[in-house]
Plasmid replication/partition related protein
Amino acid sequence: MDIEINEELRAYIDPLSEDEYAALEGSLLAEGCRDALVLWGNVLVDGHNRYGICRKHGIEFRTVQNTAFQSMDDVRLWMIDNHLGRRSISDYQRGVLALRKKDILQARTAAQAPAPAASADASEASPVPQGGAAAEPARPPLATREAVARAARLSTATVGQIERIQKAAAPELVAAVKSGTISISAAAAVATLPAQEQVVAVAGGKDELRRAARQVREKKARARPAEEAPQGEGGEEPADLPPESTDVGELQGLVRALRAENADLKRKVANLTVALKEARGPKAESRM
């Protein structure tokens, strides 16, 4: 069978880093290709890296057909769920994949909804349930940010930050997030800047990105007390407003931002700890 490579599917999941690719290549050379490549007809769905390495080194591999796929969206959803189940992907990748799943499911639900005219006819023909209240239409899966966060195993705040990055971040800033040069929360702050300023910050490296994120947060913190402060007549601030309130608001904003970054770092450390234990497990057992 001639395996067909669909470029869209190959690019649908972020590529491995150089270190990850080298580790996979070493594993395949040492142990062979243990997991079968997943196909949909002739199209390769899962195992693009393994397929390339096996062909390069003449390593034998097996294939398996997934007969459940009915459309390309089925394939995409399977790929998303398959990768969300892995521990090795980053929090940013988890959020992006969960948001993609939401978009696919919502589009599918909208396409399956009855046309307005048909819906009106059905409402006239169908009796109203006892009690007088018509049943609400079913909501599509992942209809809320909370549902997306659960699917990605992230906080709702992190999902919101990823959405902001996707909508407003320059490609250079997105690449910096993917590489781990900048945290998700800091990137979301930098993404509020004009695109050219984002590019300049990325070019300046990690320290410049941190400085840019800090400036955005400080500016937002300074603006918040002015927006929330009670207004006197004519829109003037009351005379008894303490002058140090702006400093307090600024510090509170910085504390919130630092707590969000701390939570992100704790999750990453936990994931790395689990991955390290799993990687050491077989070796530790072999020594026993």
Notes: The first helix runs from residue 7 to 12. The radius of gyration is 25 Å. The longest strand covers residues 37-40.
